[in-house]
Amino acid sequence: MQWHLFQNYRMRTLVRGFENVGYKQTTSEDFFLIDEEISLFVVCDGSKSKDGRWAAETLSETIRSEIRKDLSKIRAYRDEASPRNKAEVQRQLGQAVQEAAKKIFSESRVEKLRTPTASSLIAGICVADHLVWTHVGSARLYLARDGQLHCLSKDHTYYEEMLESLPKGAAVNPIFKKRLTRSIGDTESVPLVIHCNQVATGDVFLFCSNGVSDAFESGRVGHSLLTQAQDLTSVSEALVENSWRQNVEDNLCGIVLKFVEGTANERPLRRIPIDVQKQIEILRSLSFLKSLQQDEKALIRLQGLLGHKNVPKGGTIIQEGSGSEELYIILDGEADVLMNGKRVSRLGANDIIGEMGFFTLEKRIATVVASESCRLVSIHRKEFEALVQIEPRLGMKILEGVVRQLSDKLKRHSNVI
Description:
Elements: E1 2-5, E2 10-20, E3 30-35, E4 40-45, H1 52-68, H2 72-79, H3 83-108, E5 120-127, E6 130-136, E7 140-145, E8 148-151, H4 158-165, E9 195-198, E10 204-208, H5 210-216, H6 221-227, H7 232-245, E11 252-261, H8 279-285, H9 296-303, E12 306-311, E13 316-318, E14 326-332, E15 335-339, E16 342-347, E17 352-353, H10 355-360, E18 367-370, E19 374-380, H11 381-390, H12 392-413
Antiparallel strand pairs: 1-2, 2-11, 3-4, 4-5, 5-6, 6-9, 7-8, 7-10, 10-11, 12-19, 13-18, 14-17, 14-19, 15-16, 15-18
Helix pairs in contact: 1-3, 2-3, 5-7, 6-7, 8-9, 11-12
């Protein structure tokens, strides 16, 4: 059990790792690592070779040692969860995985010392109120929240690539699920995408090798285990038992992570302005995200983008002539748009503020002042750019929604259109 001090409140992290050879194997090529001090969690799925276990252990330990070389970035983000500090932690995790991949590749090519390997990996750092994570191959990350189960990762396999390229509904041979398009060990570097998910009280995450996920997804057992998780030791044992019962041939390895609130006798701290468990409902209510309202996985990914801001009556939301790094969406309240000191329009719930400067990078052309107290969510440009690189389709959906709402705004306030 460990503590995390988030920006405005405390949350406990309960964690349990497990490893088992599985139904058919006699040795394990998988490995998990938990470093509670820096909140690092790694699961490596080693290839079936005499050096599979060596690769899994070396990958995990190298990632840890690389991150421990400089803890200032993690500490800075825990002190201030700004987009810049978050980007530094994401960059650090990516660099640590690349260094580990380089080490495995170089050592496995030394004649008579090692044999080539191809490992899968899922690694994450819990920092401030986010889980920063990345994955390679078929190791997976699941999230159980409010009774719903979500697979956050996407396998790097020929099967997944075929599903994307072929017409919807086309049959794909399941044999391709085991054929990786990306792994650690067969190249000196590996393409990486660094993700970030905001955590909430009650969230349960499962980092696991494909031996666990193969059985996990074949029935409702895994779903009920995670969504109703209480005792993590029992959950871990049940996941292993479930895999054995279904005769899964692979090794079994995973980490179960649960976020819970502190008890009543522990020092209370003020909660964040918006309860994080309501984030999806907030996103679903935003009209510019109408096309994503039923896409639960997309909404979960968007959670990490949102900032929060409360502005009192008379307070300035944006100032004419200032930079344009953020756009704002009004959740509650109203605001006046002023040009040359005169009000030109009034904005209310669901309206977007500052979208033109956000995309053009030009200085603000108007001042926006809260005519009554406002509760806002914001998206920072750097966060949006990172999302577009990771999920171009999702970025395009957001852009389409913003443009549609901007068009509606122009129609309301212009005689030209």
